[in-house]
Structures are given as C-alpha cells and as structure tokens.
Design brief:
Length: about 220
C-alpha cells in the first residue's frame, strides 16, 4: 500500500453539524477526500453502502441508531471498511466493546488535526491505534466468550488456511499486540517485510486492519 499515491475516502458521521464542519475542514489536505457527511447512525450505514469509503469517522451517541450499533452493521456488511469511533471521553470498557464490534480504533474529540490525519492514514494503511494492553484485554474477553460464538465455518477455515506459515507467525504476534518493529525483532525480519506480511494477512482474511485481523482470528478460535 502506497500512502503517498492513494487518496483516502472518508465519511463523517456525527449528529452535530458544527462537528461535521470542523472535521471536514481539518481533513482538507492532499491525499484525503471527504466523500460525504451523515447526521445519524442510520444515515451513516446507508451512506457507507452507497459511497464505499475507506474510513468512517463514527460518533458514539446519535439519534435513532447509536454509533456502536451502526459500527456492527457496517462491519457485517462491509468488513474491509475501517471505522474509527469518535468520542469525548476515554473509557476503556467502551473502547473494548468498540474494538470487539469491529472498530479499528478511536479518536478523542479533543484530538489535534495532526493526530486526526495520522489516525486516518494509519488505519487506511491497515495499521492500529490500539495499544498492547487493550489488545490483550480484548483477546482475553474474546477467548472467554468463544464458547458462545461457535466453531469456524468452512469459509473462515479456508481463509485461515490460505495464510503461509510465516504469515501465521506474524499474525500470532499481532494478536499479542506487538508493533511491526517488535515483530521484526522477534522473527529476525525487517520491519518492511513484516509490514508486507501484515498487509497479506489483512487481504486474505478480508478485514480492514491489523486490529480486526487479530479479533477475527481469535473469535474464530484459530489462535489461542
């Protein structure tokens, strides 16, 4: 993925017009295109289906359909769309639910323009905004509830079996919350090689980012 050439399509979903206008202004830069704005979770779902954005900026509390509910519907219909939750408060329990529900990460509404642009570019490139501690907690929560999820179906098994031995090794370390640089040190590879492996994993599992690759593989029971 070449972030210098790719134009990232972004959809803004927030019920406050002032917030939407502010985000649009902050995203006015080369390489990022705001393709639409939605004023509710329901409208956000429909516009995501129509516009196929690379990244959705999703408010948490909205009328009709909440951001969390919209997130789950979007990730069910369009798993390769990255969703960043936008929130006022940093609540670890909420963040965990959001990640399990399909979010690539979260942004505080107090974030700077630089933080916002970095976050969008990171998840559009398959990266993660989730720290190692939260990732471990997410994995633990998923493993505890795995008995309620059931076993992987044939399609999921085929996706996993399409991974190479090296890709599986990299994925296991992604599940542990390691960065590409840390994985490179563990496996004696270059960071660029690890990045390529992660990109292949994301493509083969048909997810949007490394966080959701980890969530997917643990939910399916392929990695313990």
């Amino acid at each position: 993925m070449d972030g210098t050439l790719r134009q990232i399509k972004v959809l803004i979903v927030d019920d406050h017009a002032m917030v939407r206008e502010g985000l649009r202004a902050m995203l006015s830069t080369e390489g990022i295109l705001v393709v639409g704005e939605a004023a509710s979770g329901r409208e956000g779902i429909e516009m995501t289906r129509q516009l196929s954005p690379d990244v959705v900026l999703m408010d948490v509390r909205m009328p009709e359909v909440s951001g969390l509910t919209a997130l789950e519907i979007i990730k069910t219909d369009m798993p390769q769309t990255a969703v960043l939750m936008v929130t006022t408060y940093e609540n670890p329990e909420y963040l965990m639910k959001a990640v399990i529900g399909g979010a690539a990460g979260y942004l505080l509404k107090s974030a700077t323009r630089g933080d916002l642009l970095d976050a969008i570019r990171t998840v559009a490139d398959g990266g993660s905004l989730i720290n190692r501690e939260l990732m471990r907690e997410v994995v633990s929560r998923l493993e505890q509830g795995r008995s309620l999820i059931g076993t992987a179906d044939n399609e999921a098994r085929a996706r996993f079996e399409d991974l190479t031995e090296r890709e599986v090794a990299v994925l296991r370390l992604v599940v542990e919350g390691l960065s590409n640089r840390d994985i490179a040190e563990v496996l004696c590879l270059s960071p660029n090689t690890v990045k390529t492996h992660v990109e292949h994993v994301i493509q083969k599992l048909q997810v949007s980012d490394r966080t959701q690759a980890a969530v997917w593989v643990v939910r399916q029971g392929f990695v313990h």
